Amino acid sequence: MKKWFFMLGCCALIFASCQVVKNPPTPAVPVGKIDFRSLEAGQLSRYVAYRSECLALADSFAYTRDTLEVRVQLNEGKLFLEERFTEGSPMWEFNSTPVVHRIIQGADYVLIPDRFRSQLFFFYGNDTLRMGYENTARLKQNDCTLNIQEDPFTGVEIGYLPTFRVGPIELRKKSVVSCLPGSIIPSFGGAYIFHDDAQVYMSHTVTDAVRGWELLY
Question: I need a labelling partner for 40 at 20 to 30 A (CA). Which of 50, 111, 182, 185 fits?
């Protein structure tokens, strides 16, 4: 009798297991990474921080172990970007409070009116990031900064950069905007946003050292 009860119990367990396999819970469909052509609440991109020295970009390059999550939010019909350091990042120890700022999507641009607390856009003097714009200035890399011919790129125009390298990072065929924080010093001092029509790939600043955020996904 005990043997029959044992066999029935095993059958019940097998049946229950089969039921679970045949009817798995439906996973939530991820919204995906931020797409500036079509912003949608829930989109998420993550960036990793790096640091280097201008005259030794390869040898001195290091990731700082800081990561930044940027998420699109919708509140009362308006879009916002929320930036937060991930828990465990060194910067999170000093600032665990998210920063939220308004973003407005146009046909071929995004408008970021309040960006001065943003890790990615804080230096950008223009509040508009143009998408699908025909670039007017061909740029070239000069150590850690960018030039138009022999002059520092200051962001009066939207630039086009065939290739940019810093440490292990290599970007190709990106649009670039700039706004120098402080006075212009040839070959030193600059701040750049590298992007295309859909993504911001890097925010790169040069002051006493080279610092920036690289897109992970």
Answer: 50
